[in-house]
Amino acid sequence: MEKIFFFGGSFDPPHIGHNDIADICLKHCETLIILPAKQSPVKFNKPFASAAHRLEMLNLSFQSANQIAIDDFELSSKTTNYTIYTIRYLKKKFPNSELTLVIGGDQWSNFNDWYRWKDILKEVKIFCLNRSELIKENTKGLPNGIQFIKDYNCKISSTEIRKMIKINPESVRNSLHPDVFDYIIDNGIYN
């Protein structure tokens, strides 16, 4: 049975923290599917960059990783897409696979606010990367299938990258894949 991890988000823009997450995931699975979101159901603001730009930046960011697939299922959704819908889609697409949802510790801390979160826990495993020292791991009473990676703490923020590009683009060069940085600058995406 193939182990497939899937990882969603705005990726506005994708940064090297996302590449680090992919590297960690690929130590635990055969395939990682990245699903950029059209609009997060829990965020009020739409992504700044267009779906086409975010897809292209993801393709540039992961161009050399043959175990990573970029899937536009959530981007092409006509209505609000919830994680449980993505899970159903992936289960149909990969019926003989073990699916694992990749989330950050910040998402885990409010996981019980997610739409049909109990169903998510029944359908897939969870791979949680702690992104902050403030996240306290409490696995008592949790179902099996939740794995915490405690030594990951990404300090890079897509929001901060967007702000800094307007002020001083060179200050974020090291936070982005070189091809993504060039693409952002060449297309004036966050100006």
Task: Provide the fold topology.
Elements: E1 2-9, H1 16-25, E2 31-36, H2 51-61, E3 68-70, H3 83-93, E4 97-104, H4 105-108, H5 117-123, E5 125-129, E6 146-149, H6 158-167, H7 178-187
Parallel strand pairs: 1-2, 1-4, 2-3, 4-5, 5-6
- Uncertain runs with pLDDT below 50, 5 residues or more? none
Radius of gyration: 16 Å
What do we call the CATH homologous superfamily?
A: HUPs
Number of strands: 6
What is the averaged pLDDT score? 89
Classify the beta-strand content into a percent band: 15-25%
CATH fold group: Rossmann fold
Helix share, percent: 25-40%
- How many separate helices? 7
Shape: globular
Main beta-sheet annotation: 6 strands, parallel
CATH class: Alpha Beta
Question: Alpha-carbon distance between the termini?
Answer: 46 Å
- Under the CATH scheme, the architecture is 3-Layer(aba) Sandwich
Question: Structural class per helix/strand content?
Answer: alpha/beta
Spatial strand order of the main sheet = 3-2-1-4-5-6
**Number of domain units:** 1
Order of helices and strands: EHEHEHEHHEEHH
Question: Can you offer a commentary on this structure?
Answer:
The chain has 191 residues and is α/β, with parallel strands linked by helices. It has one domain (2-155): HUPs (Rossmann fold, 3-Layer(aba) Sandwich), CATH 3.40.50.620. The chain contains 7 helices and 6 strands. The protein has helices spanning 16-25, 51-61, 83-93, 105-108, 117-123, 158-167, 178-187; strands at 2-9, 31-36, 68-70, 97-104, 125-129, 146-149. It has a 6-stranded parallel β-sheet, sandwiched between helices. Strand 2, helix 2 (51-61) and strand 3 (68-70) form a beta-alpha-beta unit. The longest helix has 11 residues, at 51-61. The chain is globular and about 45 Å long. The mean pLDDT is 89.
